[in-house]
Give the backbone structure.
Amino acid sequence: MCFNIVTVALFLSFLLCSNALQFLRGERSYSAEPLAGLYHTRSHVTQDTVNRLLDVLQAYRLTSVYGVYALHTHLRVADDEVLYLTQAPEGNFTSISVLPYASVRSDSIPMSHQVLLAGNTVELVPIEHGSATPDAISARQLLGEAIAHGLLHALAHVLSGSPQGHAVALSQILPIHRNALAKGQVVLNQLPSESRQVAVIAPELGRASLGLFTRGIASDEECEVAAGWLTATGK
């Protein structure tokens, strides 16, 4: 009997992960090419655009799982590589490493998507991947449901009326972001090397530039800064 229960649990887990790995409508297959144009390039996204994108996420009940990311990267990624996110179980530390895409392709899912305007809709371009945890799978399923109800057209409406040159992404809100906001602190991203980025909880941004914007995770519904980047080289 115990064997049957374990077998059923493993089968259900397999089905859940398999569904999560399916493409969402409007989602491109992964390519490292978009990351080349984001290397050491500031997003220049305006607060007005951030607020309007958060309005859309709120309307589709996604603000508990996704934020708006002012997209850029300080890591070089080759054609066959991917940015891969690893999280500490305590939710107080994350690491993003440059890994061969083939080594994580079968059991990872996109954690953030660049939002690219394409006529009256948008395309979602995978930028960072991570382990297919239950939280990550749940967030992706909610994103898929929102897409089925018109999310992509609503995002396109915002971006079509925004200044050109914005590089923005929808990024999953991680335990480290929730922990920081609950303490009234921030997540500070740092670069120990050219192939690895780490994030820790810090009291304040200091000279860092703004990164991930959220809404409703802390005590109010105002736009919150969940994460920031150190300026220039990240040192």
Observations:
- The first strand starts at residue 66 and ends at 70.
- The chain has one domain: 2-229.
- The beta strands are 66-70, 81-87, 93-100, 108-118, 121-131, 168-172, 186-193, 196-202, 209-215, 223-229.
